[in-house]
Specification:
This protein is of the alpha/beta class. It has one domain: Carbamate kinase. The chain has 10 helices and 17 strands. It has a 6-stranded mixed beta sheet, sandwiched between helices. A hairpin with a 2-residue loop joins strand 6 and strand 7. Helix 2 packs across helix 4 and helix 7 runs parallel beside helix 9. The model has no long low-confidence stretch (mean pLDDT 90).
Length: 302
Amino acid sequence: MTLVVAALGGNALLRRGEPQTLEAQEANALRACRALAEMAQDHDLVVTHGNGPQVGLAALRSEAGGHHPQPLDVLGAETEGLIGYLLERGLRSVLPGRAVAALLTQVEVDRGDPAFHEPTKPIGPLYDEAAARRIADERGWSIAPDGHGWRRVVPSPSPQGILELEAIRVLVDRGVIPICAGGGGVPVIIDADGRVHGVEGVVDKDATAALLARQLQADLLLLLTDVEGVLVDYGTPAQRLLRHTTPAELRSMGLPAGSMGPKAEACARFVEATGGRAAIGRLRDAVAVARGEAGTQIGALP
């Protein structure tokens, strides 16, 4: 069987403009699991997921709750647990009898990563520009444009290692579907004494998915989101889907750092390191994207 690492975007689980409720996330998680179910019957599968909308909402609730808001690593762990639970429940529902396990995952980052001084990762809800600037002034946030609005942005250090990698290997080898590295994993540093400490940031889930796929020697890295793939001439009458490309061409496109850019870079790194194939596409088209029939394909076609 081929091994597929499928990364679900946070916006695929909490859609733009949807009510920010548990019921909406439950429904979207089940929809995501149905999209993955057919693939899981034909391939070994590892599932990762984003948490950008969820961790931003958790941060808002934490700040509203008192004078000691929780740090982002703790909020990341909370949302990884929540989304992992919803996805595990959904996969067990659509794949009865299949072993599934959600694994809280820590990801080592470099304390000296320049990303700590250059926030780029959007989290939380979308605001209009005036509201975003007002809230940023009140709370000391960094903000940036995202689509048709503005969002909070936080540091996104590069993943250096996955602390639970060997546990994930064991699960895959035993035929279990692991749900892991959610939200890019909980960012941690390891001091000289070997102690693990959480840090304030959100690791890009696509970068972690690419690292995980490389270390597991996966055959396919699948980045599933709420858009059909990489779009050329985006926002113009000439807009079109880029159906097949190379790492070099992807990098030459200068895709936005807050949205498609990290996905493109993750795919490029995976293909260059392994010679395998990566693809970006809609979650609802997961099987077609995996077959090379939809989305943007990077590397050799199947």
